[in-house]
Amino acid sequence: MTTQRIIIPPPGPKARAILERDARVLSPSYARDYGFVMERGYGAEVWDVDGNRYIDFAAGIAVNATGHSHPEIVRAIQAQAEKFIHISSDYYHELMVRVAERINEIAPMKEDVTVFLANSGTESVEAAIKLARYATGRRQFIGFLGAFHGRSMGSLSFTASKARQQERFFPTMPGVWHVPFPDPYRPVFAIPSGGDEGDAVVDYIENVLFPDALPPDEVAAVLVEPIQGEGGYIVPPPNFFPRLRELCDRYGILLIADEVQSGVGRTGKWWAIEHWGVEPDIVCIAKGIASGVPMGAMAARKSVGAKWTPGAHGNTYGGNPIACVSALKTIELIAGGMMQNAAEMGAYILDALAEIQTRHPSIGHVRGKGLMIGIEFVKDRASQVPAREMRNTIVHRCFENGLLVLPCGHSVVRFMPALMIDKALVEEGLEIFERAVTEVEHL
Ligand SMILES: *Cc1c(COP(=O)(O)O)cnc(C)c1O
């Protein structure tokens, strides 16, 4: 039934020729895990330049939300390209307004929002940081260990997921205080009776950090990923977000949800923070919003966002019309069934992984929401020592057998396929994954 996947062991001769040219002229700063050289993609499948076919569980890092080159996205982009491709945010066009109207409708807060349009995740985070300082008149921030918020100097000051992202770049923006992210599998604090690790982290902020090390009325915002992404696809325990919201309210601190990876339907809801019934003051959006056309957005409660005055923040490309039509169509497709599919396929994969885990002692923990799923590898379940090398080998084995997956955290493999993926491809992908785990466990 299924078409053949690997014809030539990758990277094949055509791929290797491109890797060589790439190494001569492209920045060596890009961190690649393996040599997949893309030729084309359709839905949740991709082909390399040597004709090999792969199932795509990475979706361009959770960006190709509607799958590769969805025909309706392609048509919308083509039609807009014939009208105009750029005009700049010095002028007006209706598509920008429509995108902001749609974001206002789906944003995770009841209050209306104002929307700033950008071109990437890091830019949407920069906008949130600048707005938080501007609107509150305060300068300090709280971020989380293991967080990833981008690589420009402002967002980088919060990023703490990998040493190589930080090395030789200090000092970044001052005023960011890092606290542990509550990880139910690897708690760093004793869990209070009747509570969870989320209570413990908020108690630490309130009783240890506040007020002696950091006066709470100098804190502009807490910046947090609802599900920590690059840090290891960590789902916080139930009490964390409700308690964090209370803490922010008590001290007049803004809560910024970085939904760049977890947002736009990926977890089976528009925004991951909705799983905990908590409203942020600001939400950062990018990755899945426009199916691969670069777009970022920062949506703030009107009472906060309306404090900016003309010239306080801006850019040249934000609200690009090609990105806008792609975002509008992406939101329509996700609302029209893909979000539901993400919830169903996600539950199906988590079930299947629970069963796979019973056969593989190297799988320490499986977690996720919707199609944002992490599998953590350990040397053995009792010691929970991360099995980083093993994880890396599994990622490579998957590639060699026709499945694209990416690592995150210390020893986690993540699944983040397009939201339209169907059960047949999911099963084919899981089979390749389990075979890779078996092979690597027997090395
Ligand atoms: C990817 C990511 C970013 C940065 O996005 P870029 O488009 O790479 O700048 C920020 N926050 C989170 C949570 C991300 O996953």
Can you describe what's shown?
The protein has 443 residues and is α/β, with parallel strands linked by helices. The chain folds into two domains: 13-69 and 337-441, Aspartate Aminotransferase, domain 1 (Alpha-Beta Complex); 73-333, Aspartate Aminotransferase, domain 2 (3-Layer(aba) Sandwich), CATH 3.40.640.10. The chain is built from 13 helices and 15 strands. It has helices spanning 13-25, 59-62, 71-83, 94-106, 121-136, 153-156, 163-166, 197-209, 240-251, 302-305, 321-359, 388-400, 423-441; strands at 38-42, 45-48, 53-56, 113-118, 140-144, 176-179, 219-224, 254-258, 282-285, 296-301, 363-369, 372-377, 403-404, 406-408, 412-415. The strands form three sheets. It has a seven-stranded mixed beta sheet, with helices on both faces. Strands 1-2-3-13 form a four-stranded mixed beta sheet. Helix 8 (197-209) runs parallel beside helix 9, helix 11 packs across helix 13 and helix 12 crosses helix 13. The longest helix is centred in the last third of the chain and has 39 residues, at 321-359. The two termini are 31 Å apart. The relative contact order is 0.16. The model has no long low-confidence stretch (mean pLDDT 97). Residues 120-122, 125, 148-150, 225, 229-230, 258, 260-261, 286 line the site of pyridoxal-5'-phosphate (PLP).
